[in-house]
Amino acid sequence: MRYFLSPPHMGEKELEYIHEAFKSNYIAPIGEFLTRFEEKVKEFTKAPYALAVTNATAGLHLALRVLGIEKGDKVAVSSFTFIASLSPILYQSATPILIDSDESWQMDPQALEDAFKKEKGIKAVILTHLYGQSANLKEIEALCKKYGAFLIEDAAESLGATFENKHTGTFGVFGVYSFNGNKLLTTGGGGVLVSLDEKLIKKARFLSTQAKEEGVPHYEHKTYGYNYRLSNVLAAIGTAQMEVVKKRIAKKREIFNLYQQKLNHVATFMPEIENSKGNRWLTTALFDVDPLKIYNYLKSLEIETRPLWKPMHLQPLCKEMKFYGKGISEELFKKGLCLPSGTQLKEEDIEFITGAIKECL
Ligand SMILES: Cc1ncc(COP(=O)(O)O)c(C=O)c1O
Question: By three-state DSSP, how is residue 305 classified?
Fold first, then answer.
């Protein structure tokens, strides 16, 4: 038996819907499932407008383009995250300003405020909701308002996570969810961009399909766009996955609780910010020993784990970029590990994995 970090979990409906898409012969680029998938995401998250795209990275890129972020503009971004939170800033030739985490592991509002004060003119903030838990939306949202910056939520990992009972991804000007193969739900590869503003999603939709002007039979272009629209077949998978979203979150949280119970004395788990509820996409924890020892020992037993994200400010790519914070994410990176969190795990699997960790320690 091999344990993966977060493998896809297909249910009963996915193939049925794929067959439906095939029968209709709407494979791509349009089709009924694109609308159904978007409707499901809207209904679940309460985001009024949604656009299904090829992946969350494309969604973030569209968000920046729609908001007019361009060469030389400053964009603050979580440092403790996956590279895809940052790379769309580079696609726009804009300037990332890296913001550290605080004890919550999420973006540190104090470091963000320092950046706002020193940098002047930060136009947007890309806020990652890390490992499926909500960031400190109350303070970050207030800071974005105070300093007049657009808030873009990178909710790639946090579909279904809430802050004060409101879904992450629905606080900012834009939010984006990922349906990559390792996420809570998957379409193989995919993303959904959401917004409270119809005009913004309309513009993103236009740009995601090569920016073709309407009202003429030929292709007329006043600007350039992208080929970022999700296919109808993948949207069919997403539609079926959305039908089990609540079940999957309950299972992820159950897995987290089991790990916490069984490793209570040897590990410190990622906290949840007050008034928030995460989806616990990946169970992540800090250990007192070098996590690579655990990583290697578990690897020998075919159990996949992964170090926490290496902060962006430590990446060779980012060495010239400005960074604000106390280096808390560096400490987290040194001590932390993501544990297998697939929703098909049973209690005996967690028992086996935690037993192996204890053995290693
Ligand atoms: C925080 C974060 N942002 C963005 C992405 C990019 O998502 P996608 O693979 O759908 O482009 C991911 C994961 O892949 C992620 O973990």
Answer: coil
One-letter identity of residue 44: F
Q: Which residue in this structure is represented by tokens 């079940």?
A: 247
- pTM recorded for the entire structure: 0.98
Which residue of 5, 54, 82, 182 sits with most ligand 1 atoms within 8 Å of its CB, as the best mutation to test the pocket? 82
- With CA atoms as reference, report the closest residue to 42 among 177, 144, 218: 177
Q: Does residue 135 line the site of ligand 1, with CB under 6 A?
A: no
Ligand 1 atom nearest residue 189's Cα: 10
Residue 26, amino acid: Y
Please tell me if the CB atom of residue 133 comes closer than 6 angstroms to any atom of ligand 1.
no
Cα(131)–Cα(105) distance, integer angstroms: 10
Whole-number Å distance between alpha carbons of 246 and 83: 28
User: Does domain 13-242 fall into CATH 3.30.420.40?
Assistant: no
pLDDT 10s digits, 20-36? 999 998 887 789 999 99
Instruction: Return the domain boundaries, the chain.
Output: 13-242, 245-360
CA–CA gap between residue 232 and residue 235 (Å, rounded): 5
**Residue to substitute in 80, 178, 338 for testing ligand 1 pocket (most ligand atoms within 8 angstroms of CB):** 178
Ligand 1 contacts CB of residue 177 (under 6 A):
no
As assigned by CATH, the class of the 245-360 domain is alpha beta
> Is the distance from CB of 7 to CB of 182 less than 8 angstroms?
yes
What's the CA-to-centroid distance between 60 and ligand 1, angstroms? 9
Q: Do residues 167 and 141 make contact, with C-beta atoms less than 8 angstroms apart?
A: no
Token couple for 24: 């209709």
What is the spatial distance between Cα 191 and Cα 60, in angstroms, rounded to a whole number? 10
Would you tell me the crossing angle of helices 32-45 and 232-242 to the nearest 10 degrees?
30
From CA 350, how far away is CA 256, in angstroms rounded? 10
Six-digit token string for 274: 């007050």
Pairing relation of β-strands 191-195 and 49-53? Answer: antiparallel
Determine the length of the chain.
Answer: 361
Q: What is the pLDDT of residues 298-355, one digit of tens each?
A: 999 999 999 999 999 999 999 999 999 999 999 999 999 999 999 999 999 999 999 9
